Amino acid sequence: MSPARLLLLIATVAVATAADDDRAVYVNYTCSATGNYSDDSPFGKNLAELLPTLSLPARVDNWWFRRRTVGQASGLAMCFADSEPDRCLNCLHSVSPDPYTYRAACDHSRDVAFISSDGCVIRYAGEPFFGSAANSTTTARLLLRNTWKHAADAFAMKETRRWLLTKLAVAAGDDDDRRFATGSQGYDDTVIGTWQVMYGMAQCTRDLAPGECTACLMNNLGTIYTDVMAIDSTEVSVTGLSCYLIYKVNEPIRIAGLPAPPPN
């Protein structure tokens, strides 16, 4: 894979941790004021029951999603479709006894949201939030990753990206079962004289309504347009608390349970 950078946009807090294979894991999280409940309060007891259920061992593929409400505590967890199963399960286990740093920074916060470059999202709160995208109209709390490789024919690439990712954002919103879409589109690079194929994927947490999902993804797409290093890049992913958007040129996106998309 080409060298890549990770940009943390308007992060509330962001840290990097070491993975088992020494690959850096980048996370971003946000939380309400700390010290908002005690362990023996009704909410504290509800949360203690809720969190382990969000990371129970389960098949991690493009269908995997879990949400639950226990008394006053509501939460969800999901692995994105192109995440590596083992790494995403480790990510989800960050809500359990050996957590990432965010559990210390968000000590006894009632509202917490967490995303990781390992491909998982975790949210929990003291009030129901299912159906509402988190920060879908701002660039806050995003992980944006792109390669240093820029398209030779930037105009053709950007037009293809706009067409493909907009199409996928709408299709993901219309997918009632999974809030997920993948596809590809070819274009002629007139600078180097070769045919290029762009592969894309769009995914939302499955609690979102169609319009909320599409709006969240379009916000992610807008972020790509405003980042000076990502705008001409041949590979970009934008991970938010409620949705995920990625594209790659000439590199199919591998998704568990699905074949590589055809080079249309």
From TrEMBL:
The region annotated as signal peptide is 1-18
Which organism is this entry from? Digitaria exilis
Ranges for domain Gnk2-homologous? 25-129, 139-252
- In Swiss-Prot or TrEMBL terms, this protein is called Gnk2-homologous domain-containing protein
What the entry lists under Pfam families is as follows: Stress-antifung (PF01657)
Keyword list (alphabetical) reads: Repeat, Signal
Q: Which InterPro entries match?
A: GNK2 (IPR002902), GNK2_sf (IPR038408)
